[in-house]
């Protein structure tokens, strides 16, 4: 219904655009006929062109290039993968759907159904493709893999995918008209700069297009809310197909393990991104994923089941707590909790599981993984000929990265930094046989994070009452206009939690101060705390520079006139001057020396010595914008690295005092 409404509104806007073109063309013609001279001719051409640009704006999406999802995938020759082909064939026949047109491999932790969604796909049947992520294959059993594929083939048979195609194309049109305007704006700017008379082109087209964009922004949220609700229902249906084929246990187990599988691959990719400057790359990123997943499972104290980490529902939910419950209208998938409840209430037949690793379905998994790894790094530029590291080298280095802080603190400092205290105060206790880093103390930090997230959400709801109609808190149901009242309750809880954490941190300081005094290291201990506090305060100040640079450059990603762009850039350049001063200070500071890589040093020096100009000849300089983005990312990485190094130094000293 909403798609039809969009079509009607779009046609009305298109008719208005054509009417504007006709009216401006008529005025231009009458102007030239009534008083033929250079000024009226130029003005007439400007008016005529303005109408043309207005019409072109409404239809320019027809000339935009379509994205090709398979560009970042490798097509799999199923004739070389007989066992996998038989699995897919059996699944399609059992479910009663067509064999995929293509089977493609990606590196990520995912499996999906897709097709080239064009206007033709809305009217004619289109064979769908199957994407299999090797990162997914690496983290599931054969039964779990079959269940996930059955889930995806369940989408193959859904008529609602056709509705999804309509919505997808509506979104493409809206996105093109709202955001893909650089080439269009550059053309108008070039035309209007040719003559003062042509400035009308700029102004008239801008006014009309701004009105169109206002209407489309109102449509976008409504169209997508309906589509996302449909998407959630499609997921439940596809889940039922998977559970029917393999039973509920493989579906639930793989669902609960998926965050760990995904996080392990993400961390491996991040690790090797950091190794590019050292000329190191992996020959097989998926073997490294297995190492990382097992190390992370050990750290989380997860048991193994069928040689894979077993994540219970309780463990999965441990880090995801909230006092606020809402129906997320913007989610494309149901929550894991809702999906598990649906599995358990479905009365599906339990089927004997094949607990072998899913990779066994591939004829030569190692070769396939290495080819996918090479494909992933095909466009990465190394300064020198890169070398492959060994799995043992990776394991040793990665182990150090994930075990940032001593185990004796029981994860207390993983997401918590020592609070600022009056180091000379005496209102702290130091009783014997007290645990400062036990389960209850760590739980306080989790409680604080939960309350802070809930308060942030309630603040968003207060500022955007139309986003959610209502929410649940404890046993009550509240309308969105009551969000501020519940926020007051949670704020009081949070204040009490902070008070308890502060007292524990005071007691921790008193405990270690006594140990340091007993071991004649009191001055060293005090200096370590002072150094950390100084770094902590400076981090907040320097991080604001990063945020300010981003926020003040937001205009570059909006549709603005050249005059306004130049005015905003003048303001930005003053902010950039201040940022460069901080950058110079950072490079000279001994506190940050160990955190600044050669890559960062070269980028910072080039940026400071040759300040980029972001907008020349009424066009954005994308190379300069990318250079700025790289510098900002490196800047933030230096701040974070220095902060962690300082924190590790303080915690290392504490661990020494406890053990010696």
From TrEMBL:
Alphabetical list of InterPro entries matching this protein: HtpX_protease, Peptidase_M48
Annotated transmembrane regions: 6-31, 38-59
Cofactor(s) of this protein: Zn(2+)
Membrane topology: Multi-pass membrane protein
Gene Ontology terms: cellular component: plasma membrane
Domain of life assignment: Bacteria
Name of the protein in question: M48 family metalloprotease
Organism taxonomic ancestry: Bacteria, Pseudomonadati, Bacteroidota, Flavobacteriia, Flavobacteriales
């Amino acid at each position: 219904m909403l798609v039809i409404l969009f079509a009607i509104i779009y046609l009305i806007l298109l008719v208005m655009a054509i009417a504007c073109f006709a009216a401006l063309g008529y005025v231009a013609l009458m102007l030239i006929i009534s008083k033929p001279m250079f000024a009226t001719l130029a003005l007439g051409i400007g008016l005529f062109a303005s109408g043309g640009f207005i019409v072109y704006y409404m239809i320019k999406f027809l000339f935009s290039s379509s994205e090709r999802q398979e560009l970042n995938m490798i097509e799999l020759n199923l004739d070389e993968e007989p066992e996998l082909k038989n699995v897919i064939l059996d699944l399609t026949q059992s479910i009663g759907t067509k064999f995929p047109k293509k089977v493609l491999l990606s590196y990520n932790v995912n499996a999906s159904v897709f097709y080239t969604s064009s206007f033709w796909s809305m009217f004619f049947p289109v064979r769908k493709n199957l994407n299999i992520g090797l990162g997914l294959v690496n983290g599931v059993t054969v039964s779990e893999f079959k269940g996930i594929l059955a889930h995806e083939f369940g989408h193959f048979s859904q008529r609602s995918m056709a509705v999804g195609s309509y919505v997808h194309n509506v979104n493409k049109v809206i996105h093109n008209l709202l955001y893909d305007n650089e080439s269009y704006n550059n053309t108008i700017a070039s035309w209007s700069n040719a003559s003062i008379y042509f400035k009308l082109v700029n102004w008239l087209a801008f006014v009309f297009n701004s009105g169109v964009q206002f209407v489309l922004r109102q449509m976008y949220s409504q169209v997508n809310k309906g589509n996302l609700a449909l998407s959630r229902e499609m997921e439940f249906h596809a889940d039922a197909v998977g559970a029917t084929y393999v039973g509920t246990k493989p579906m639930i187990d793989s669902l609960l393990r998926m965050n760990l599988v995904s996080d392990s691959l993400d961390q491996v990719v991040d690790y090797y991104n950091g190794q590019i400057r050292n000329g190191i790359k992996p020959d097989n990123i998926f073997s490294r994923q297995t190492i990382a997943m097992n190390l992370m499972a050990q750290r989380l104290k997860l048991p193994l089941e069928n040689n894979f980490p077993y994540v219970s529902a309780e463990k999965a939910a441990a880090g995801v707590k909230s006092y606020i419950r809402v129906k997320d209208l913007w989610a494309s998938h149901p929550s894991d909790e809702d999906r598990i409840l649906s599995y358990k209430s479905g009365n599906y037949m339990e089927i004997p599981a094949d607990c072998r690793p899913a990779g066994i379905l591939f004829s030569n998994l190692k070769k396939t993984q290495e080819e996918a790894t090479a494909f992933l790094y095909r466009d990465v530029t190394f300064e020198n000929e890169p070398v492959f590291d060994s799995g043992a080298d990776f394991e040793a280095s990665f182990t150090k990265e994930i075990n940032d802080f001593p185990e004796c603190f029981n994860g207390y400092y993983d997401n918590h930094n020592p609070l600022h205290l009056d180091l000379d105060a005496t209102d702290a206790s130091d009783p014997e046989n007290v645990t400062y880093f036990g389960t209850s103390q760590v739980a306080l930090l989790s409680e604080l994070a939960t309350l802070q997230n809930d308060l942030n959400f309630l603040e968003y709801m207060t500022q955007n009452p139309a986003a959610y109609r209502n929410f649940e808190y404890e046993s009550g149901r509240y309308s969105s206009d009551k969000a501020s009242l519940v926020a007051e309750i949670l704020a009081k809880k949070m204040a009490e939690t902070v008070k308890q954490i502060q007292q524990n941190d005071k007691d921790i300081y008193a405990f270690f101060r006594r140990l340091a005094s007993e071991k004649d290291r009191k001055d060293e201990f005090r200096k370590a705390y002072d150094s950390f506090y100084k770094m902590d305060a400076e981090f907040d100040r320097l991080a604001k520079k990063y945020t300010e640079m981003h926020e003040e450059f937001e205009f570059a990603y909006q549709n603005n006139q050249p005059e306004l762009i130049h005015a905003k850039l003048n303001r930005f350049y003053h902010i950039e001057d201040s940022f460069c001063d901080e950058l110079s200070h950072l490079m000279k500071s001994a506190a940050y020396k160990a955190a600044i890589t050669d890559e960062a040093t070269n980028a910072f020096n080039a940026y400071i010595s040759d300040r980029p100009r972001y907008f020349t000849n009424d066009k954005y300089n994308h190379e300069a914008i990318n250079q700025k983005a790289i510098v900002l990312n490196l800047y933030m990485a230096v701040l974070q690295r220095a902060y962690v190094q300082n924190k590790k130094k303080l915690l290392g000293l504490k661990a020494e005092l406890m053990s010696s």
